[in-house]
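#help-structures
NK: newbie question, is this the right format to request a structure? protein is ABC transporter ATP-binding protein
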Amino acid sequence: MTQTILKIQGANKRFGGLQALSNVGIEIKQGQIYGLIGPNGAGKTTFFNVITGLYQPDTGTFELDGKPYSPSAPHDVARAGIARTFQNIRLFGEMTALENVMVGRHVRTHQGVFGAIFHHAAARKEEAETRARAQELLDFVGIGQFADRTSKYLSYGDQRRLEIARALATDPKLLALDEPAAGMNATEKLGLRELLVKIKAQGKTILLIEHDVKLMMGLCDRITVLDYGKPIAEGVPAEIQSNPAVIEAYLGGGGH
């Protein structure tokens, strides 16, 4: 039986008088690319933010890799094994590509502040390993040649790849991507699709929010559709595309 990586049941979130999430749940298996779609205002980003510790749920049960999971703060979420990217690129613009990935990797390092201050042998060894792993990840996402380039001078598509490399540096159990194709042209989207398939082939599990329905239908193993904060459909892409509620709420309504 395939292992469940993330299981959420009964997630609710209210902002004042607005019920942003109503009894939302998902179950993501090891090695899946799992999609989350819906019209604007459907609650996708709110749910994503609850999963990754930016918002606290009002109710709900959460399990990560078979263990109770409390998404209390983003840094705790990263340590627990969920790495995310954001709809708006959040890189350290003055750092090189390599340095950005090394920052992500430090979630998994052990030497801490004393190692940084005294730079003893163990700290030097760990730093060298961190640098080597960061370079491997840059090579993996296809921008290894830009390791020493200041990240703000990378192309838009390469900045997206760098964000993914930095997220992968945390050795996540779940890679959570918030609209990674936003702003990309057709060629960049094709490259992104190939990269996500490559990541999946390594056994990684991906949770994906994306407005590009065509991309999602051709990429995801399973999809949940939200509308007004409620789940209205869940299944494989073929089931989603033929679901009357989805057609009415999302595809047929021209939502994004």
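mod (FA): yep, format's fine, and the tokens are attached above. The two ends are 35 Å apart (CA to CA).
NK: thank you!
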